[in-house]
Description:
Blueprint: E1 2-8, E2 11-17, H1 23-41, H2 73-77, H3 82-103, E3 116-119, E4 122-125, H4 126-129, E5 131-136, E6 139-143, H5 151-159, E7 168-170, E8 173-177, H6 183-216, H7 225-258
Helix pairs in contact: 3-6, 3-7, 6-7
Amino acid sequence: MFSRVFTRSTYLLKITTFFVCRHNNFLQKCTYIQNTVNATLGLSDVYIVDKRGYAKKAKDKKVENKPKMEMTDEELMEVIPLEELRLDLSAAVDHFKDIIRQNYSLRTGITVEDLMVEMEGLEYPIKELAQVMKKSPLLIAINCSSLPDAIKPILKTLTDSGMNLNPQQEGTMIYVPIPKMTREHREKMSKSLKNDLTQFKLELNKIYSRYTSLARKQKEARISSDAIFNACEHIKFMTDKTFHECEQLCDKKTKDILAEK
């Protein structure tokens, strides 16, 4: 819809019309209206003003997941063991960072001595079970003569490490050729990293469920329903924030992995 105001001296004429036409006919219609007004009113000066209503672009709203009701640490501690929650979240983050450091190194000199090996229900780094030696920049040797029972668990750990390792056993020795970083290997590492991030999120979900369950049990201690609800909101915020930080770390690492060099 266009509103045109024609003005001269004390004459004021307001004409509103609708144009349903192609753009190339628009100027012709404007000229026709101008000539018609000039002839009818005897006006020598006619000013045509187009007034268009443009759609305004909506402002981007910053989405915040912060709890609607703020709670101090003291208020939260009345509902949940806050320090234990923070320690559990911190431990989960440290574990995820260790996974990235151990399994997704892009350096030629890949190290395996810190990879965790499960034996008899417990986990040990390879360096505590065997002697790790670097024969060359492209070959690692692991001497398991002091603990032969660790050979099979170490082989499994190396194979399942996600580092594209192909260990070879010769007696009590394990030889690990360091693979060349191919495009296919990079894509496998990226996919494996996403799976590890999913597992990390599941671990955070367990932490969230455990502490919200503790909070809801506080009804028996005569804690108000509002306080319990707000505490659960804060637990969710803390776990979501923790996941978001590690997700950003994962995204950055994925870009590094897939970057061609």
